[in-house]
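Known limitations

Structure tokens in this collection are predictions and should be treated as such. Users comparing against experimental data should check residue numbering before alignment. To illustrate the layout, the record for Aminoglycoside phosphotransferase domain-containing protein is reproduced below. The input appears on top and the generated tokens appear beneath it.
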Amino acid sequence: MSDAGPHNLKTWYPLAPASAVPAVGTALGAWLAQLHHRTSRTAGTRRTFDNATAKGIYRYAYANLATAFERHGLDVAYARAVDETFGARLATDDVCVCHGDFWSGNVLVADGPGTTTTLSVVDWEMTRRGIGATDVAQFAAEAYLLDRFCGGKGLVEAFLEEYVRAARENGEVGGEAGKEEFVKRLVVHFGVHLAFWPSFVAWCGEEETRELAKFGKGCIEAGWGANWEAVREGPLAPVLSLLV
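Generated tokens:
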């Protein structure tokens, strides 16, 4: 594994020149779109990747969202409703194969000669059948945190724009549920990630963590209510092109 690079993307990002980061986001967006597209109609993956354990583990942030909300003085009943409405769907989602833990810590980076950078996606233990929106949202949330706290190098925008471009080119998003449901799930999952994980994996001080939780809740509300104008004003604006 050492030849895959000395850094993961999370540790590489703060050290990388700003000019190198968008290309990484673009490459990962294209790769993820292909993973989701190529496994969306593959019957054999329903048996191989019907990973009930991974589906249960992946619900962790939803199941414990109320804990983060309580810590930051937010509506605990609302957090429980989010879990009951969206967390519960993780058990039955069956659109495509999802990596299952697609974040910056699971992307290894090896800088080659010149501007060449090799990326390796690792840790596939959580791979499952699901809806690709959760992979996109998890990576986008972690990319947003890197951009916000480690230099604003354009990772989240490049990633989302390329995923959307590739997904539209493939001509199918969200399976039978449709593209609006895909975008709704993406926005909600992005919000859940930001409302929950920074409260337990520190990125900043307590006050800014509280602001992240509030921002995450706002994203959940916008996604659940299909308030696309609110989404358009934030970092997930590129995904709205999927609705066109």
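For this record: The chain has a mean pLDDT of 94. The first strand starts at residue 7 and ends at 8. Please report discrepancies through the issue tracker.
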